[in-house]
Amino acid sequence: MRVLIVDDDPGVRRSISLILEGEGYEVLTASDGQEGLDLALETHPDLLLCDVRMPRLEGLEFLDEYRKAGGEGLVIMITAYGSTELAIEAMKRGAYDYLAKPFSADEALLVLKKAEEREKLWQEVNRLRDAVSVERRYAGIVATSKAMEEALLLAEKVARHPSTVLITGESGTGKELIARFIHDASPRKASPFIPVNCGAIPENLLESELFGHVKGAFTGATDNRAGLFEEAHGGTLFLDEIGELPLKLQVKLLRALQEGEIRRVGSSTPNRVDVRVLAATARDLETLVREGEFRSELYYRINVVRIHLTPLRQRPEDIPPLVRHFVARFNRTLALDIDSFGADAMKVLMDYPWPGNIRELENIVERAMVLSESREIDGATLTGLLPAPGESPIDLSVQALSPDDLSVKRHTARLERQLIERALEITEGNRTRASELLDLSYRAVLYKIREYGLE
Length: 455
Fold this sequence. Notes:
The protein is α/β, with parallel strands linked by helices. It has four domains: 2-128, 3-Layer(aba) Sandwich (Rossmann fold), CATH 3.40.50.2300; 146-310, Rossmann fold (3-Layer(aba) Sandwich); 313-383, Helicase, Ruva Protein, domain 3 (Orthogonal Bundle); 398-451, Arc Repressor Mutant, subunit A, CATH 1.10.10. Helices cover 48% and strands 13% of the residues. It has helices at 10-22, 33-43, 59-68, 84-92, 105-137, 146-159, 175-184, 203-211, 228-231, 247-259, 285-290, 296-302, 319-333, 343-351, 357-371, 379-383, 408-426, 431-438, 442-451; strands at 2-6, 26-30, 47-51, 74-79, 97-100, 165-168, 193-197, 236-240, 261-263, 270-272, 276-281, 305-308, 340-341, 376-377. Helix 2 (33-43) runs parallel beside helix 3, helix 6 packs parallel to helix 7 (175-184) and helix 17 (408-426) crosses helix 18.
């Protein structure tokens, strides 16, 4: 801790310096008030010992000027014996405490130790206050990395405006969390937030889900039904995996965005809707546009502002706070009593590339906590839950192939099956989450599960 001594008496400066240096403090000295003020504003000391009576700038003037200039160090005034009134005046002006001459080494150290403890306490209070404000500000999103901070700042900025936002990133990076944060930080926060996964609804039902239908529009349409656009009126509609939207529906979505109105299936009457659309995808929409699988007009309409979420492997500093967050949550929801992940376990987690990103990390933390027989998760507990560091769960090397069987078709099918098996293992059979990991539509995953006999 850095201490500045401001006193015109060289003997006082020398004696206090020796006392404090012997206790491990970094000590700076100044021989008058003006020199002390200049040095304080240049070096930003944590504590300042300042005599009341000095040439050029007296102690109380020093204190006033120091505070006006934004100085934040704790100031302890040195007063002559019996100058109680001056000491009280100094404390009214912002001094922390005072020392009356003559004082012993123990007296000086006691006052400084008290000031040091107060400073540490305030630093901790401010740290906790900042942590709480960040969590409240970002709706409980756990992140410390620069990349996520930039994404959250951009999300906070665009939340105030009605512009369409495209959130991109690999599956499991938290795209829906960002979308919810934008909604909650927007003027529409009191209205509905309606999420829909465009790849998880069969194509023949998706139009009705989005736009609604009228009675008799198709077999099974026994009454009029509002779609998700109408349900989200006044609020936000989150279209996740928009890259899976069929071309036919892309045209209708573009019309809804441009004109602010929709038509229910089977109806010729338009309905006005006031909906802000947020979209997300793990796919490369630019490539889909070039290949004719995604309409360029819709791409430019939804890509007004883009927020990209980097994969977890590129921001490993987010792993420890995420683990602590998941441990606290699963202790509460699963009635567990796990204290923490040990240093060896955390190293395993930090070394793993996390192809399933935060969703996979959450799954592994929950599984490890359920299986653990001690209150601290160790590295051994994770051995059977993750591939060994540097080892891929799927062997993609050409050397692994038989030299007698180089069929691209057969080996592509083998790899596809392994990937699907791995995704189902990670998600414990949850096919919707598996489809997100695999970057395939829900319909495609169901078909391939049947094709490969994985049901």
